[in-house]
Specification:
single chain; 993 residues; alpha/beta; seven-stranded mixed β-sheet; 25 helices; 30 strands; 16% strand
């Protein structure tokens, strides 16, 4: 029996899953079975602990370590590993361990020992010659876990070939304690650890580089990531034993330039992340119309989803106004000093000129004088502000005419807010926003430069953090280089021909110099054109690409850049020779590509013919045609990892947009980068390899051991075989009418009922929450399929209307046949949104809402409504119109759940409170980890249902801490996380270097 997997066992039921093949630990490369003697010692006397026992009352088990030891002079990453290990021990037991720096191991007691190979502490007599030899041979990412007992000494050893490997070992130990890791966050059992795992394994990765490629272009992906989102995902990668993070940059016209990489001349580079000349670029936002999206203000989003976006023009923080200015005042005598400042700041924006042209002046109720305003003047002012969209028609009129006071809030990082309320009372109206300067894309040279500066600053902070964690980073552009139109004009003004190879070399020199001064990377990859996979290639195109890569390589050598060049693309090479680059490019350039056919094709066999350089395979964790639907590809990841390994690839990465919904697929890829022993076939013929054993472990830790087998049966059955109601329709995740009857189509979704039948057996709030996430995701997908069927039926009726001979006949068909179908579509839309909003938990899922509202809704809901109204000659009844208000259970949504902060970094928490009625207040309860009473902070209302709070780093210093959030819904109070305050969300502060 392998006791490594017994970390979660708290009841006899769990023991049945403790033997192979169901409970093989993740990422284990070599497992050595523990002896009966050690097992007897470590498990003796451990009390039985029930799921309802708070960790704080748990008795210390006989084998539980007394403290955590690191060696004197340990690196900051080793110290961070010790703090991370302490965090997960605390979450599993309620006991907070001390961390000590030592130069020897105590002669008595139980401890954890973390250190890199070569440290003199391993010369201690506690270690046998064999154990010392194993530790001495560790290299790079290798790590060794061993429980050693000698007389009164017990040491749980985590040894690594590098500080990063020690961190891997700490996270692997947490896994042996029942914790699981994903890109969106951690999964920690609610039950208390009953038995300490016996450590006895050596781990060596199969691939040197292992990681992810979050793809820029849609709101579901990194386009909507802010700094905290980057930091969260990067912080999760070492937990998955991943060490690579790459980004692609679209060029101008394809469809638009992105600010990830700046293109320009060396002389246009300014200090730091600043540039003196640039061009329009942007990330996806709600006011930008491409990829099939229509520009739409978030206030027009349906079914209450508008409440989740604090401004109309929504996108990443780098495209919002400057963060330096913040003026928030209640109605008081001091506000007279704020009003002139507010107007002065307005003059700095494009909006100011518009305001002045409209004749807007600072209203008298800003002067701070507590007096009744003249009714006529109030009405005149109300009309001016209402015309400009600064005041809601009904609320604004009501509040002003009652002579209410005012709250003016100019939060420059979000919007211009005007909220009206009685003095000292809670806000009673919804905030409105002015157009912000960088949406949908910057216009002026100053604005263009500003966006590149902000993006560079974001990547500098994110990539420095990645570097601290041992993660390699990579950015790049497409080849041949696309030169933006304004850069071409700039070149011509400088007397340079844009198509001259020497000019291109100067541009690459500018790109590389700017990156070297702005943010750290390890690789710059050049992506071959996407049409190489769809349309094939002409030899002239290939020659142009090779020439461009060689120009870039020469520029890289000239500027002595600290990073290397690589290739990537939708294909490894042209169709007539996929391995061509291996023969024509310098040997120090790695080659890579994503799988063809959006991941449906296996890893390119051409990798096997690349013999002289590094090569990285990049399977699809999900595809963009089905981007609005759940996708499960664990078995396919195993096949792709298997192929990549047998082709000799040294890199394995996954391309994706979303994070939480691809959790199982990411885990399967991460595991396959370290170990393939138990499932690698003798000869891989199937596109999908077996996945039941994988889903056994995944279901056990996400839903509970008692339903693991049945849940794994369902998930392994649909893995790689989920129905797909979404498709590419002028953009990602669209839908098409389905002429099949719903009675036939719904048979494809019969697995949902099978899964739903397990719900009553779920034990624990967190297990139930995670289970419901998946159940609601599948139910949402089923409603998409139903919507497609009704849409097809409605189109059939529109065809009949078109063929009808007279207007009366057209109206009759519309009223009797088309209108009932329209009502069915609206009912289905509402059901779909209820399930969707039950799953929204991060920026990518907010992006799914934007996809529905901007990409799918215009053709599925809005256009048919106009068509039907035209035929009927009247407005549709309420039941046939899309509802704008939320109808569902209240939720607290924390989109970004950081688990670590850099030393000296503030914690900024943004919370979305979704409910039918607005919450009275939202509160943060926090304390240092495991110590004392909770301190409280009130969240500030930003706008709509968005709240924010900031903990200054001076409040917690270098101490790790924990928190939970409460929100009041009338007399009802909800908490995040659902396990609070018994088990809270925890934050580790990284050690100061």
């Amino acid at each position: 029996m392998n006791l490594a997997i017994l970390s979660e066992t708290c009841s006899p039921t769990a023991w049945e899953y403790s033997s192979p093949p169901y409970q093989k630990p993740l990422y284990m490369n070599k497992t050595i079975l523990t002896s009966v003697l050690i097992v007897s010692f470590l498990c003796a006397g451990i009390p039985s602990i029930t799921a309802g026992t708070p960790p704080a009352t748990t008795e210390t088990a006989a084998s539980e370590p007394h403290n955590i030891l690191i060696t004197k002079g340990a690196s900051s990453l080793e110290r961070f590993a010790a703090k991370e290990l302490r965090r997960y021990i605390y979450l599993r037991t309620g006991n907070l361990k001390a961390i000590h720096q030592v130069d020897t191991i105590p002669e008595k007691g139980v401890c954890f020992l973390l250190s890199t190979t070569g440290n003199e502490i391993f010369n201690n007599p506690l270690f046998t010659k064999t154990e010392r030899n194993v530790i001495a041979q560790l290299s790079n990412d290798d790590f060794y876990l061993k429980t050693i007992r000698e007389s009164d000494q017990v040491a749980h050893v985590i040894a690594g070939g590098s500080p990063t490997a020690v961190l891997y070992g700490a996270y692997r130990t947490a896994e042996l304690m029942g914790v699981r890791f994903y890109l969106h966050g951690d999964v920690v059992p609610e039950t208390t650890l009953a038995r300490w795992p016996v450590l006895d394994e050596t781990n060596t990765p199969l691939f040197e580089l292992r990681g992810i490629l979050p793809f820029h272009d849609f709101p579901e992906g990194p386009d909507w990531w802010n700094l905290d989102d980057y930091m969260l995902v990067l912080g999760q990668l070492p937990k998955l034993r991943m060490n690579f993070f790459g980004l692609h940059t679209y060029p101008e016209g394809g469809p638009n330039a992105e600010p990830t990489v700046w293109i320009g001349l060396p002389e246009d580079i300014a200090p730091g992340t600043t540039v003196d000349f640039s061009y329009p670029s942007s990330y996806q936002n709600t006011m930008r119309g491409n990829w099939g999206y229509s520009a739409r203000k978030t206030s027009g989003f349906s079914f209450g989803t508008s409440a989740l976006f604090e401004i109309d023009e929504f996108g990443p923080d780098v495209m919002r106004p400057e963060k330096e200015i913040q003026v928030i005042n209640r109605f008081n005598p001091q506000i007279q000093n704020t009003a002139p400042f507010l107007i002065k700041e307005l003059r700095k924006t494009r909006a100011e000129n518009r305001l002045l042209r409209q004749g807007l002046e600072c209203p008298e109720f800003l002067t701070g004088k507590l007096k009744e305003l003249d009714t006529e003047k109030m009405e005149e002012q109300r009309l001016k502000w209402m015309k400009l969209g600064l005041m809601g028609q009904s609320k604004g009129a009501e509040l002003l005419n009652k002579g209410f006071g005012s709250r003016i809030g100019y939060r420059a990082e979000y919007s211009m807010e005007y909220e009206f309320h009685r003095t000292g009372a809670e806000t009673t109206s919804t905030a409105n926003s002015l157009p912000v300067e960088l949406f949908p894309r910057p216009d002026t040279q100053e604005q263009c430069n500003l966006l590149f500066k902000r993006t560079g600053s974001l990547l500098e902070q994110a990539f420095t953090f990645a570097n601290d964690l041992g993660i390699k980073t990579c950015v790049g552009t497409e080849t041949p280089l696309t030169i933006p139109e304004q850069v071409r004009t700039h070149l011509e003004d400088s007397g340079l021909a844009y198509d001259d190879p020497m000019t291109k070399q100067k541009l690459y020199e500018g790109i590389f110099k700017r990156i070297a001064s702005a943010y750290p990377i390890d690789y710059y990859w050049l992506w071959t054109p996407e049409n190489w996979t769809w349309e094939g290639t002409e030899r002239e195109q290939v020659e142009d690409t090779i020439a461009d890569i060689k120009i870039a390589y020469s520029a890289l050598e000239l500027v002595n850049s600290p990073f290397k060049l690589a290739t990537c693309g939708w294909v490894l090479g042209p169709e007539y020779d996929r391995a061509l680059f291996d023969n024509v490019l310098p040997r120090d350039i790695p080659v890579s590509c994503i799988n063809r056919q959006v991941g449906k094709d296996p890893v390119d066999p051409g990798f096997a013919d690349v013999a002289t350089r590094q090569k990285w395979a990049i399977p699809w964790l999900e595809d963009d045609p089905a981007l609005t639907s759940p996708q499960l590809w664990a078995g396919r990841m195993r096949r792709d990892a298997y192929d990549a390994y047998r082709y000799g690839c040294n890199g394995l990465m996954g391309i994706h947009w979303r994070t939480r919904i691809v959790g199982p697929t990411v885990s399967a890829l991460a595991e396959a980068a370290w170990d393939q022993d138990d499932w690698a076939p003798d000869e891989a013929k199937d596109r999908f390899l077996k996945s039941k054993d994988f889903y056994m472990d995944w279901a056990a830790h996400n839903f509970g051991h008692n339903i693991a087998s049945n849940a794994a049966e369902v998930f392994s059955k649909i893995d790689g075989h989920l129905p797909c109601p979404s498709d590419w329709v002028n953009g990602p995740g669209g839908i098409k009418p389905d002429k099949n009857s719903w009675d036939d189509v719904k048979q494809q979704y019969a697995f949902i009922n099978e899964l739903a039948g397990l719900r009553s057996q779920i034990q624990g709030k967190a297990n139930l929450e995670r289970f419901d996430y998946w159940l609601n995701s599948f139910r949402y997908m089923s409603e998409i399929a139903r919507l497609r069927c009704f849409w097809a039926e409605l189109n059939t009726q529109f065809d009949a209307i078109e063929k009808a001979e007279c207007a009366d006949k057209k109206r009759d068909i519309a009223r009797k046949n088309a209108l009932p179908l329209r009502i069915n579509m609206i009912e289905t839309w509402c059901n779909m949104y209820r399930y969707l909003l039950a799953t929204v938990s991060n920026p990518g899922e907010l992006g799914t809402i934007a996809n529905w509202e901007q990409h799918i809704r215009p053709s599925v809901i809005d256009a048919p409504a106009r068509k039907l109204e035209k035929v009927l000659g009247e407005k549709l009844p309420e039941c046939a119109r899309i509802p704008m208000d939320y109808s569902g259970a209240p939720r607290i949504i924390v989109p970004t759940k950081r688990t670590s902060l850099r030393y000296g970094e503030d914690l900024i928490l943004r919370v979305l409170v979704l409910s039918e009625t607005r919450s009275a207040h939202v509160r943060l309860n926090w304390r240092t980890l495991g110590n004392g009473d909770y301190s409280t902070e009130e969240f500030r209302h930003v706008a709509r249902s968005v709240y924010e709070v900031r903990l200054n780093h001076e409040q917690f210093g270098a101490h790790d801490f924990e928190y939970y959030i409460t929100a009041k819904f009338g007399s009802r109070i909800k908490s995040y996380p659902v396990t609070a305050p018994r088990q809270n969300h925890t934050i580790v502060v990284m050690p100061h270097k």
